[in-house]
Amino acid sequence: MNRQTPSIEQQATTLRARAEKILRQNPPPRELPRAKLQELIHELQVHQIELEMQNETLRQTTIELEGTRNRFSDLYDFAPVGYLTLDDHNLIREANLTAAAMLGVDRAQLIKTRLSRFIVPADQDAFYLFHKNLVEKQTRQVCELRMNRANASPIDVSLEGIAAQDVDDTPILRVTLSDITERNRAKAELRASEARYHQLVETINEGMAIVNANNLTTFINTHGAAILGYAPDEIIGHSFMDFLFPEEIALGEQEIELRRRGIANQMDFRARHKDGMPRWVLASASPIYDSHGKYVGALSIFSDITERKHAEHERENLLHQVKRAREQLQTLSRQLIDAQEHERRHIARELHDEVGQVMSAVKANLETIQLAPDPATLAADLTESIHIVDRALEQIRAIALDLRPSLLDDFGLAPTLDWYLQRQMKRAHLAIAFESDLNDARFAPEIETTAFRFIQAALTNVERHARATQVQVCARRTNDALELSVRDDGVGFDVATARAHARHGVTLGLLALEERVQLVGGALTLTSTPGQGAEIRATIPIR
């Protein structure tokens, strides 16, 4: 405050001067009766005592008022905000020390200076509206603007003003100045930090969500919402339980209870996508507390592991298939050894029983010829020996054809199949119908061998197990594959049981046949119903 208040001594001197002036203007009478004079003196003494008492009271009051004024002046001058008193023409009439320090000038330099002089040019319009509204509306006004400082950079200031009247009823404006530079800087830094946080949250390849104490979603980033097929605003306000399948609800409730007990953990579960399909989610969740340690929600970071789960499932399937294939390979190897031994015994028996007997007979005839003196007997024995050797050659040729027909190498698949089926009809007394469009087409040796062995093995199974009378064999060529099939009208069988027996090594035929077809990249299918015959098909790619 700028006004100087007179001291007590100055006030007493001024008062005495005024009293003497009044006394000179109204002098007392020249002579008074003695009684009247004594009475007057008494009254004067009483009045003097009263005046002294009043003067003492006045002095104490004045001292108290002066102390109060000084305290108020200190509070005014050293307040944390600047105080200004303006007239209606924007001139500064009063200012505290804080306002002067804020603007970087002496207080005396502020008096009778327009406040607009300190406003930066860009904010002059804002200050004009602030001042205009104060004068016209006579209501509290607030605005924020930048003000220049002497020999320093501008500062951010919040102006708050009210309209009032001075002691002489002159209109005035009371204005406070608050330096909000640091506050605005902190707000700017906070906005920048929030922007960086938002960018981080939105760019990480993870879902992030926050739920409150009632498990309602208050925040979820774009990636997290996309995992479930939604936009963020479609999830905010909903419980995460709304996106679980019914069988996952119990797990979700357990996780919520763990969070309320202050336990953070990691879990995977199935969440329901917007399209209704399941998505496997791996989530890490931790509780959130306020400054008083009260649970207010939870933070969850999660990712879509559906592809990983599918890969794990595929891996388990592959491992199971590899295990099954290894078991089948072991079974096949073991049974292949048994089959080889069986074939060796069969060939040995054929050679011993058939060819051995023939050779023995030839030997006996030759020994007879050696001893026979009669030429006629000699010719008959030679003729018989020749017939025996012819039968032996036929038997050796039949054994060789059973092992590997030379027609397959010389003429190809179709002629070999035709020869073989004609031979089987005679041997097994079966009616076999053969359909083929292969003609003289040739294929890779391994494909022709596999196709022949497939037909051979299929017919062998029909002869041994089907009790069939009619068999249809087909061999056709498509653009990229060789299609083979053998169908009979026999007793049929249960396919699942047959495959189970093959896997467990009970029978060799089906497993060996399937392995042989798969070795050339083909596939085998088997259809049958008990009592209604069976059909086995092979599709072999042509390379």
Question: What is the CATH topology assignment of the largest domain?
Answer: Heat Shock Protein 90
Major β-sheet profile: 5 strands, antiparallel
Q: Helix count, per DSSP?
A: 16
Q: CATH class of the largest domain, anyone? A: Alpha Beta
Structural class: alpha+beta
Instruction: Give the second-level CATH assignment, the architecture of the largest domain.
Output: 2-Layer Sandwich
Domain unit count: 5
Radius of gyration: 60 Å
Average pLDDT works out at: 83
Low-confidence runs: none
Task: List the main descriptive attributes of the protein structure presented here.
5 domains, 543 residues, Beta-Lactamase, 5-stranded antiparallel β-sheet
Quick overview:
The protein has 543 residues and is of the alpha+beta class. Helix content is 54%, strand content 22%. The chain has a five-stranded antiparallel beta sheet, with helices on both faces.
Description:
With 543 residues, the chain is α+β, with helices and mostly antiparallel strands. The protein folds into five domains: 8-75, no CATH class; 78-186, 2-Layer Sandwich (Beta-Lactamase); 204-304, PAS domain (Beta-Lactamase, 2-Layer Sandwich); 306-403; 405-543, 2-Layer Sandwich (Heat Shock Protein 90), CATH 3.30.565.10. The chain contains 16 helices and 15 strands. It has helices spanning 8-25, 34-77, 97-103, 107-110, 124-137, 181-203, 222-227, 232-235, 249-260, 306-371, 375-403, 406-411, 413-428, 445-466, 495-503, 509-519, and strands at residues 82-87, 92-95, 141-149, 152-165, 171-179, 207-212, 217-220, 265-272, 278-289, 295-304, 431-436, 470-477, 481-488, 523-528, 534-541. The strands form three sheets. Strands 2-1-5-4-3 form a five-stranded antiparallel β-sheet, sandwiched between helices. A five-stranded antiparallel β-sheet has the order 7-6-10-9-8. A five-stranded mixed β-sheet has the order 11-12-13-15-14, covered by helices on one side. The longest helix is centred in the middle third of the chain and has 66 residues, at 306-371.
